[in-house]
Amino acid sequence: MMANTVEAEGQLTPEEQKRLTADMHRSLRRKKIGALFLVAPLLIFIMVTFVAPIASMLYRSIDNPQVLEYMPNTSAALADWDGNELPDEATFAALVTDLAEGRKNYTIGKVATRLNYEKSQMRSLIMGTARKAGKLKPPYKDQVIKIKAGWSDIDNWKVIKRESKSLTASYYIAAFDMETTPDGEIKMLPEKERVYLAMLWRTIWMSVLITLLTLILGYPVSYLLASLPMGIANTLMILVLLPFWTSLLVRTSSWIALLQGQGVINDVLVWFGLVNDESRLSMIYNATGTVITMTHILLPFMILPLYSVMKTVPPSYMRAARSLGATPFTAFYRVYLPQSVPGVSAGAILVFILAIGYYITPALVGGQSGQFIGNMIAYHMQKSLNWGLAAALGVILLVFVMGLYALYSRFVGNNNQMSLR
Amino acid sequence: MAIPSYAGPLETFWYYAFRAFCALVFFFLISPLLIIIPLSFNVEPYFSFTHGMLTLDPEAYSLRWYEEFINSERWMSAMQNTFIVAVCSTILSMTLGTLAALGLSRSELPYKGLIMGLLISPMIVPLIISAAGMFFFYSSIGVSQSYLGLILAHTALGTPFVVITVTATLSGFDHNLVRAATSLGATPTYAFFKITVPLIMTGVISGGLFALMTSVDEVVVALFIAGAEQRTVPMQMWAGIREQISPTILAVATLLVLMSILLLTTVEYLRRRSESLRGISAH
């Protein structure tokens, strides 16, 4: 019937048009919902098992519940304190109540640890006073100061007041080797105490070095692979893909076997008389070990994107340049190199992103001088248990990597990410 | 790429220097993997070739470290744990990843870029950061130090590979085939299993192998969220390398190299098969 109308008048009546659009919308919506239903299980799964953990880390880097939760009376009493002179008797009373309560519930240690991150004598101040707080009778002020003279220092009170807020930037301040003075000023730590910026800087320059080495080793090989006949290239490709598919720990342990003092390389050097038996080279458990091992591990990640770009450069261009009188060097420099730049960028960013987040290899072969920022995060997670600082360092690294990744996806587009990891 | 006949002596020199350099790089790539194979048969607990090994004295070789590996309860339970976790997480990643890839390949899906970004984020975020986040979150919901936690974590890390390979396979997929099947009377389910599944199977399997490899090789997250009972092979290797590196590690490493050769062969076979199925010649 509809067809008849169309034929008769050459166009749809407004009513039919409306019905048709509604029908189309409904069908489109059904398709949309269908597609969403397919994606939903994984999306929810990733949200719960991956995105939520990352979000919880973000939160932990600014979360500051200890003082507020375990010293509630003191926090409340200090809220109106102006910070010019010692707090009044009521505040001291609140402090004694909190300390006694905290000692009974075994929560005072958490507050002491938290405050000690900010000022180094805070732990003994809090713990020493808490031990005796239960026996005190009012008035408290003088007795408390007698137990620990630190309570007469206004700066200590200022730290407590500052950290009695539920959110803090202090982990980030610490992660950038800075500190907050009692007056609320943020300044750099003395040169000797700076750790993380130096570590971040070392991570960056070693990653740059590793990226450059993989580029120097990878570029000629990719060029060779791209210009050889397919059959030979595919066979040689196995030599690139096999390390790529082999466990990271396997490759790391074989480098330990190769590089250590009594290892294969030193033995060969001694055997050829290039090195004295007494002065074997120390090529592992230091920065050299990290650089050699990681260059080997990340080299396939440079070769694969380079190769896929070089594959698309027609070999006739180079021949044309030569026939027009260019020397081999000019032909390469002016014709081939510019066309391989996208591959260089993609490979370099990829290797750099992977290198900067490394943890396992530096931990195993890096010794003291070959540690990365990732090792610092692991140290604070597992040894010092300063989780807030670990989270802050993690977030800084994450922001860095995300920025680089945004660059990377501009070079390769969204569908060619298989070569990651 | 033979050397052109007009090449002068300098160019000839460059040509051979270039080839020699490439040969050295290939040697650099492959020798660390090959060197551990003979070393793992060393009768002595050294990481170098003994005089006996170099003179091919059969006395200098033994299966001692392999025996130690097989007789070690720790290694065997680590193998079992790795197997359980890897199989479960691979099956989960393949199922969830394939479904998502089917959705992602439909043009009607809204917010496609955002969704894709979220789904592949586990592959981009450095492992140490994922591990720290999972440590906080998984202990707060009570699944850390359990098989479930480790399987969930490894599934999250493995799904991006499945999503990417299957999406890539689907990008060359001819939707008219399904329409033809439906017009010939097939129900959507029947058409899916008879037409779509066989065509995307290669992508699903190679994505699954990537996910499998991720789980088998993964150590950072495992170190943070697995308990002593879930100790996997990489965790055992990590502990072995840190404490006292014994050639048993090299024996395990040799077995893992053999496994990667097997996996590489399978993936390459699948890739070529998929290319020939889609009419793209491998040569």
From TrEMBL, chain A:
Recorded superkingdom: Bacteria
Record's keyword annotation contains Cell membrane: yes
Gene Ontology, cellular component aspect: plasma membrane
Gene3D superfamilies named among the record's database cross-references: MetI-like
InterPro entries: MetI-like, MetI-like_sf
One Pfam family linked to the record: BPD_transp_1
Claim: Transport is one of the keywords in the record: yes
Subcellular location: Cell membrane
Entry membrane topology: Multi-pass membrane protein
SUPFAM superfamilies per the UniProt record, alphabetical: MetI-like (SSF161098)
Domain ABC transmembrane type-1: from-to ranges: 200-408
First-listed, main subcellular location of the protein, grouped into a coarse class: membrane
UniProt protein name: Putative spermidine/putrescine transport system permease protein
Record GO biological process: transmembrane transport
CDD domains: TM_PBP2 (cd06261)
Residue stretches spanning the membrane: 33-59, 195-217, 223-242, 254-272, 284-307, 343-365, 385-408
PROSITE patterns cross-referenced by the UniProt entry: ABC_TM1
Similarity remark: Belongs to the binding-protein-dependent transport system permease family. CysTW subfamily.
Keyword vocabulary terms for this entry: Cell membrane, Membrane, Transmembrane, Transmembrane helix, Transport
Organism per entry: Neptunomonas antarctica
UniProtKB/TrEMBL annotation, chain B:
Gene3D superfamilies named in the record: MetI-like (1.10.3720.10)
Pfam families (UniProt xref): BPD_transp_1
GO terms under biological process: transmembrane transport
Gene Ontology CC annotations of this record: plasma membrane
Keyword set includes Chaperone: no
Membrane topology, from the record: Multi-pass membrane protein
InterPro entries the record matches: MetI-like, MetI-like_sf
Domain of life: Bacteria
UniProt keyword terms in alphabetical order: Cell inner membrane, Cell membrane, Membrane, Transmembrane, Transmembrane helix, Transport
Transmembrane segments: 21-41, 83-102, 114-141, 147-170, 191-213, 245-270
Compartment list: Cell inner membrane; Cell membrane
Name this polypeptide is given: Putative spermidine/putrescine transport system permease protein
